[in-house]
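Hey, I'm writing a tutorial for new members on how sequence and structure tokens pair up, and I'd like a real worked example in the thread rather than a made-up one. If someone can provide the structure for the chain below, I'll link this post from the tutorial.
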Amino acid sequence: MRPRTRSPITAGVLAGVLLSAAGAPGAAAQEASPCPYAQCALRIEGSLVVRGAEPTIVASLREFRLDRIHLSGPIPDSALTHFREFERLADSAAPWFLAKDVLYWTDAAATAYFLGSLLFGGRDKAARIAFPVSLLASLGEEITGDKAEAKMEAAEVELARGVWWYNRELPRD
């Protein structure tokens, strides 16, 4: 079993933070002067999206949602497209992560029941099917985990592209 890197819920909330501060998606900001690159450029550090040379946390990947993030200035349409694709992919990974978690606990329960029946001499029908259930749950956990991770990796690529396009449009100091 591989350790889970990020939950899709983590990733999904981050995209929302970027759009809300800019007002309507793709619309020009209401500010008189645009935010300079050194103060407003975004970057991804681990599981956080930070802004500026002196890093200010904008959101965690878990909280990245276009309707929840606050940025200075307009969000270019090219960045907006990637942020929305990030949200879509992260949202589509969520059920796979949930299924993986359910299968993990099913596997754990079936294994515990099977081992308990071996140790304490139980010979009932449930004990005989616990081992195959455990094997199937373990296999299902691997398959759903791989699917969830693949979707999240694709989502994170879209987020990185969105951050790049957002930063590209910022005025240089």
